[in-house]
Amino acid sequence: MKVLLCVLAIGVFANPAFAKSTEDYDVLAAVYGLFAQLDAGDPLNEEFYWLVNQESVQHAHHVLKTTVQHVDASSVKVAVSFEYQFLIPSEKASPARYLEQVIVFTKNALGLPDKVVSIQTLVDETDNFNSVFIPSKDQNLIRSLLYDWTYRINEPGQWSLNHLAPNPDTFTSAEPDVFGTDTYLQALKKLNYVSSRRTIQNLVIKPMDDAYLVSFEYIWHGQPQEGIEELARQSQKWKVEIQKDRAVVVEFEEKYLTPVTDLGAEIRC
Fold this sequence. Notes:
The chain has 269 residues and is α+β, with helices and mostly antiparallel strands. 16% of the residues lie in helices and 44% in strands.
């Protein structure tokens, strides 16, 4: 990043979307992971009362909005709005339900949101018309993967990516001397930033024959030990496969793009 990075004075960005994100990507990974699990029909218990419990039924949870309400050392509380659909094999459509809930996750030993301990439903409305069923499991798995990956590379000295990209066919990094996930994290750690934050933009998930093409951009803020905050813009292209209800990266490619800034910004490249 040092070689290709442009350094800007803090506070001169033209586009507000380039400001530091307040998204909690570990929480988003947990939320989308939960709904992917529910899309797969597991678990079916009273906590998830809205799931239609019939043999061979398909489920879909389309997340509309998430808002983190509280975080402490042992738990996370997040407000979620989503649309739930189901499809019985003998039918082509069914009425959708709109729900707003407050979900509390406990944190595991690594400090990541894990198990659901409570769900409070604030709104539960059923449409008075049938909607065509749109599957969501793969999309939820991929988003959970993306948010988990982003959270981990923001703190490269603490995490592994091996379970997210166990055996990638290709791994092309913008950082020098990188040959896979382990050396990728080592290269990021060597930057020795006090803080590192990536914001996801322009996400596109495109189905392929046997996989998905996931493309997006990172706006990357890094704070060195000394000096002005640094900004980079990266293009990311992944090939993602769904393997046994898990999304994994099988091809990875990233490159640096020209940062978009205010014309009056001080830029040193």
